[in-house]
Amino acid sequence: MKITANRKLATANPVNRQDDRKPREHCGIFGIYGHPDAARLTYFGLYALQHRGQESCGIVSGDGCRIRQHRGLGLVAEVFNPQILEQLPGHLAIGHVRYSTTGSTLLVNAQPFVVQHGGQSLAIGHNGTLTNAREIRSSLEKGGSIFQSTMDTEVIVHLMARHRGADTVESLINALEHIRGSYSLVLATADQVIAARDPMGFRPLSLGQLNGAWVVASETCALDLVQADYKREVEPGEILVLDAAGLHAHRPFPALPHRHCIFEYIYFARPDSQIFGKSVYLVRKRLGAALAREYPLSADLVMPFPDSGIYAALGYAEASGLPFELGVIRNHYVGRTFIQPSQTMRDFSVKVKLNPVKEILKGKRVIVVEDSIIRGTTTRSRVKSLREAGAKEVSLLVSCPPTRYPCYYGIDFSHKGELIASQQEIEQIRDFLGLDYLGYLSLDGMVAATQMDHDSFCLSCFSGDYPVTLGKDFSKTCFEEDICSPGPLEATPVCEGR
Asked: Per residue, what are the HEC states of 283-338?
């Protein structure tokens, strides 16, 4: 069913939050075994995955005898240089880029996370969110475990340490039997790299090969950069061991229905990646074409807000026959911090990143295609800038349904109050954004554009139907504050809320 808004309400009460970030993925992982320049290749792999996390990054390398690590806060190019990479010798390495959904932005929470146990070093990097991490942590702390960080990832290594005498793979299997939620993992010892993916396959993980070396990465764009040949996805529920004997696959868990995160297609993944067996670029173009079928609007041009929505806008323009224009230009050299201007420079935070092309917009009826609207305030400022540049009409079409429910599997909107569509009706959102027309792609239209089965995806942020059972009022605070009742490791998470 199409969702539209053309009628103004007199009682609009829009959400107006100061923080209007786009939805953010919280990690990217990379691993390689069997290459003499493993750390340097991992650096390039992380560079390709930088869009998945910009808060911190790290690389751990191994040479068969010991592992070495370097981690830091900031972007990959800020944390690493040639001298540091020279200090990470070895034929194996794993790496991680992080944006936190659990745990603060502190160096202690940077990954890969390294522990010493039984005379062996173990490093782990994690993409996803463990929904029962707080309960497990409480149980382990009661048993004497001491945690070094606030990350949910750390519970995995503590669970592994409980199985003394078991080899690394057996310890990992035992640990994963206890955890719930989403995870794609890379682990490293001095002589092994191990990759694992949760049985529902929430987060992507790909396998490649480079001159006999095996490579795993969150997205195939990282394989492309290091010139590795893509072989296949790491299957949901699969554990891969990369060592001197080659590649070994383990499938220790019962098969479960797949629940891939559809936001990977909508927004997270790089368009030059292939995930879940499909080209991200082509899926996004099909999302735009589906919008054109559901909303055949009359307009002078179609445009995105770069870089968000570009590929869906291309698909809409191609399907509708309307001209595609870049009505705003992005400044690609804006850093993460800059000197704040004086109060006389209005809307600086918006204009410093995106500047309208007045000659393109003046007097025109404009269709803007966006991938998503989460909180709304930045979109509102951008629409205002189009009006000020002379646009006659501004319509906004969104290449997914309204995001009404929190995500607990690795996206940073973990509270319902953060989502404008959970608080407001479509007409109210349209009025708040200052639009002439607002339309969201239907759920069926979105899924059809992927050319995959409806049941292949986690759609909980649109439907509220969570594939992994959650306790009452479950939220991100359950990971970070002592508000959940601990239970046995096998128990379903029980959260009593506030």
From this structure: HHHHHHHHHHHHCCCCCCEEEECCCCCHHHHHHHHHHHCCCECCCEEECCCCCCCC
Query: What count of Cα atoms within 13 Å lies in the side-chain half-sphere of residue 101?
Result: 28
Q: Average the pLDDT over 179-184 and give the result.
A: 93
Pairing of strands 260-261, 457-458: parallel
Please tell me whether residues 89 and 203 are part of one structural domain.
Answer: yes
pLDDT for position 339: 56
pLDDT at 404 over 80: yes
Beta bridge partners of 125: 186
Q: Are residues 248 and 288 in the same domain?
A: no
**DSSP of 24-82:** -B-EEEEEEES-TTHHHHHHHHHHHTGGG--SEEEEEEE-SS-EEEEEEES-HHHH--H
Question: In this predicted model, what pLDDT tens digit does every residue of 426-473 receive, in sequence order?
Answer: 999 999 999 999 999 999 999 999 999 999 999 999 999 999 876 444
Distance CA 282, CA 303 (A): 18
Q: Which two tokens stand for residue 431?
A: 């009025």
Active-site hit among 27, 221, 261, 484? 27
Q: What is the CATH number of the domain that holds 385?
A: 3.40.50.2020
The three-class DSSP label of residue 113 is strand
Separation between Cα atoms, residue 30 and residue 10, nearest integer Å: 52
Q: Is the pLDDT of residue 336 over 70?
A: no
**For residue 152, which amino acid is it?**
D
Is the confidence at residue 179, as pLDDT, over 70? yes
Cβ pair 310, 321 in contact under 8 A: no
d(CA 483, CA 493): 12
Contacts of 472 (CB under 8 A, 6+ apart): 495, 496, 497
Q: Are residues 252 and 290 in the same domain?
A: no
Question: For residue 100, is it within any domain?
Answer: yes
Q: For residue 27, indicate whether it is catalytic.
A: yes
**Which helix (DSSP H) or strand (DSSP E) does residue 479 occupy?**
helix 477-480
- 140, 279, 431 from 6: Cα distances, Å: 55, 34, 10
Instruction: Encode pLDDT of 266-307 as tens digits.
Output: 999 999 999 999 999 999 999 999 999 999 999 999 999 998
User: How is 174-189 classified by DSSP, letter by letter?
Assistant: HHHTT--B--EEEEE-
For the cut 60, the answer to whether the pLDDT of residue 498 exceeds it is no
pLDDT-derived band at 131 (thresholds 50, 70, 90) equals: confident
Structural domain boundaries, residue 228: 27-256
Total tally of structural domains belonging to the chain: 2
CA-based R_g, the chain, Å: 23
The answer to the question of residue 470 being in a domain is no
Give 100's pLDDT tier (boundaries 50, 70, 90).
low
Name the phi and psi angles at 187, rounded to 5.
-125, 155
